[in-house]
Amino acid sequence: MHNARVLPHYLVSRYNGWRATTFAENRAWYSRLADEGQRPRAMVISCCDSRVHVTSIFGADTGEFFIHRNIANLVPPYTPDGNQHGTSATVEYAVLALKVAHLIVMGHTKCGGVAGCHAMCSGKAPDLEEDSSFIGRWMDILRPGYERISDLPEPDQVPALEREAVMISLENLMTFPFVREAVETGHLTLHGLIHDIGDGTLLQFDGPAGRFVPV
Amino acid sequence: MHNARVLPHYLVSRYNGWRATTFAENRAWYSRLADEGQRPRAMVISCCDSRVHVTSIFGADTGEFFIHRNIANLVPPYTPDGNQHGTSATVEYAVLALKVAHLIVMGHTKCGGVAGCHAMCSGKAPDLEEDSSFIGRWMDILRPGYERISDLPEPDQVPALEREAVMISLENLMTFPFVREAVETGHLTLHGLIHDIGDGTLLQFDGPAGRFVPV
Amino acid sequence: MHNARVLPHYLVSRYNGWRATTFAENRAWYSRLADEGQRPRAMVISCCDSRVHVTSIFGADTGEFFIHRNIANLVPPYTPDGNQHGTSATVEYAVLALKVAHLIVMGHTKCGGVAGCHAMCSGKAPDLEEDSSFIGRWMDILRPGYERISDLPEPDQVPALEREAVMISLENLMTFPFVREAVETGHLTLHGLIHDIGDGTLLQFDGPAGRFVPV
Amino acid sequence: MHNARVLPHYLVSRYNGWRATTFAENRAWYSRLADEGQRPRAMVISCCDSRVHVTSIFGADTGEFFIHRNIANLVPPYTPDGNQHGTSATVEYAVLALKVAHLIVMGHTKCGGVAGCHAMCSGKAPDLEEDSSFIGRWMDILRPGYERISDLPEPDQVPALEREAVMISLENLMTFPFVREAVETGHLTLHGLIHDIGDGTLLQFDGPAGRFVPV
């Protein structure tokens, strides 16, 4: 904490520019958002990856999306054991406190976390199997997905695992009683997406058909 | 999973607009980022709150920031116990795999998570004390901060606790051996910010002085 | 060489200040840039003029822009004759070695080089026609632009020639086989700008429309 | 030219921020600079490298430095043959038209151009020997420097060649009659610097001593 340092100057400069333009132009709305609280229509769970900014892709307004970003956009199964579950806390807050109408899980291509999971599950990254590997233990959430794709030809496995990361998260979301109830009573809809960061395409999961299709 | 639904039309519409404009204008760069991988200069840990989008405030280019967003921008202490620690995984990935040069914790005013923590710690929200409350258990990370601010006059407590959320996260970051080492060898600098969502101001934590000052 | 002198004290003083502040705040990033090499997103070709600093206008981070500055931001046509072509070397390095995604030619108002070219082409500066005039021979690159603007009313000619300096450079860039290929395969986009140094405005060249428009 | 595209949005955003802050705060000075012309004290010749921005290192004000940036901060010998010599044109303009009082050649460590020259001269990059290589022909300016450092131990050669790039440019500057005259009559002083981009140090060439020393 005593090590905390001042911001690099170029960020201060840009912040000052933002304040003089974007902020100034939206002052009334920001002020209302501060006074009345947020009321986002949707929650988005996406990856920390610097190449995937959902606010850009969906032209999001301030106040529109409640956004959780973690490694590989994963949601663990419902486990109310009194331990810290940061992702589960975000889902609980979005569904019970904010009552969002949509919950969107957005995966992406070239995901480093998914590639790491594939390496771990196929025996090529023993260090990720250690208890001390936070990345490895986190990617355990995706391990059941590896079982489902390990018979595919090698070059298809990682892309298929990226899709599993979305499908497993959707499955796990339904293990949360409050998510299931909101979905079943029609208060919440779930959505699964895959964004290709190179060619910009977007696929969505078609639940009844059980596969991804272009939006 | 079978419940996954197609995207609302307004989002498809905006996505198509993004693809015809922003994507088209940046195609070459996105393609390079996909082929060569990301190389972000900084990791930002901020809140899921829909009113706080760090990419806007700092005019970020795609590829510049690796962003983790959770409830109240918290980092738990280092606990390599083999359990799932999603936030710790993001820090591990940013520092060890991406070797980011800056780690910025950005808190904000009017934080619902912090307000919940204050209610819980002051005995006004017994439900958050339940084992089954993911939010409560997550906000336990901030409990030591409550001890430090509970003697303040009532109206000052929540704003002070918002600052504690940043300071405790900075402290906890230093309990990760790989963070400490990167800081001590000069490969990483830590930064703590508080963004006021209503009036747009930005404070930064001045480590040696032990307090927040305007940028 | 034996005439080289120590730096004026005011520059040493400012350098020391930079080292104690900007450098210290960015040490980790500078160290990474030194170890891993640069990976700029864009090349900018602008004028040497002391009134035009592109890093300021665009809030550039260190490592973001590869910048060539010459008189009047000119690019000569592709001429692989074994002679020294400093500007062509910078374009070759940016496109083939660094694989930048954007190439921005930024002209500006009140350009001394363009004014000199106008004087030369309109017969008012015979000394610039001499073989020994490096400026005159360099400004020959812009001579075809003079042909296109010499019928305009006198006061419009120099501003029009400043725009020609950008347009001709864009045309000449497309005569480089490696630039053309990168553009045609979507790996590179070209941009033409005019910055008004007095009133701060910025125009961009709209290729399909064939004219400059405000950004 | 017809391929020219609009600027990426993040740059437009940052430009708008610059206009609302830096420009607005300096409007009077920018307006005077536009009306009265530039009057820079010094010319700086530095590299295009995105990691070396002399305006940052020396806290330059708008209007202070006339800056030429090329590959490896090289100046060719005086060759008034009627061909295009972009760098010589910048020197002519700075010394004869602007009458700058200082001419600073600033080299830097980890220079890609110098490394390429070393590879070429030591026989490891035959493609750079081709007539069609603009980079190779440009780096020929530094070839005499290779002769002077080729007996050094291998690891010392590239750093020594980076210094030669500065020394040879200073030598070549003195072959320009108008530079020599300005130096000899005391109207101009020459300076040679090496900036270490990783550790931020700055060395200057001590002419009488014939070596680089810390500033």
TrEMBL record, chains A, B, C, D:
Cofactor: Zn(2+)
Enzyme class: lyase
Record has Protein transport as a keyword: no
Secreted as UniProt keyword: no
SUPFAM superfamilies: beta-carbonic anhydrase, cab
SMART domains, A to Z: Pro_CA (SM00947)
GO BP of this protein: carbon utilization
EC number: 4.2.1.1
InterPro entries: Beta_CA_cladeB, Carbonic_anhydrase, Carbonic_anhydrase_CS, Carbonic_anhydrase_sf
Entry's family note: Belongs to the beta-class carbonic anhydrase family.
Function: Reversible hydration of carbon dioxide.
Protein name per its UniProtKB record: Carbonic anhydrase
Species of origin: Paracoccus jeotgali
Species classification: Bacteria, Pseudomonadati, Pseudomonadota, Alphaproteobacteria, Rhodobacterales
